[in-house]
Amino acid sequence: LAYCVVQFMEKDATVTEYIIRGLLKYWPKTCTQKEVMFLGEIEEILDVIEPSQFIRIQEPLFKQIAACISSPHFQVAERALYFWNNEYILSLIEENCQVILPLVFATLYRVSKEHWNQTIVSLIYNVLKTFMEMNSKLFDDLTASYKVEKQKEMKRERERAELWRGLEEYQERRMQMLTEAARNQRNLQERGERGDPLSPSSPQCDQPEPKPSGANSGAGESAT
Questions:
Q1: CB within 8 Å of 21: residues ≥ 6 apart
Q2: How far apart, in whole angstroms, are the C-alpha atoms of residue 126 and residue 71?
Q3: Is 0.85 surpassed by the pTM of this model?
Q4: CA 27 distance to own-chain centroid
Q5: 10 Å Cβ neighbour count for 193?
Q6: What pLDDT, on a 0 to 100 scale, did the predictor assign at position 101?
Q7: 22: left (phi over 0), alpha (psi -120 to 50) or beta
């Protein structure tokens, strides 16, 4: 089927964009074998694509390739990185380096530091080296921007962690206050049930009732 598609494209180059966008639309999400197969079909199409058609699909295409590079499954990442071993595709990338490099740089840089497979890391270093040779100024600018953004991200993570720590401490203090209040209430109830005179809820029988103010004034008048 891929062979038939390529033959059809050679007869009518204008259908290239629709074919690639169709493949991207139905890109496999869970099956790594299908992802590898789709990457192979994309490479066969790119082998015969016209530069004018390549420009029309480069952004969505390399966003998907960047996603494949960051795949934890090494076969998917490896198959995506093999695109840079194709001389014709590499020439297309070089002609459009200003567009393509910003799309994939952050992924390449991050995966080179985090991926578990050493083969993938080596392939990524080769790709980064190729990009650096293509456009060293753009590469340096993207490197500096990535490091600044990474520092901002780390600062946001620290602020988020401090916020959560403050919320946890507040919740812990609140629970302690609620527990203490419940304990005090329980003690008051227990003392009230025992008839403890010290309890505010027990009747204060030992205290004399205050006399009305009128009685004192009447007694004074009688004495007079």
A1: 57, 60
A2: 18
A3: no
A4: 22
A5: 11
A6: 97
A7: alpha
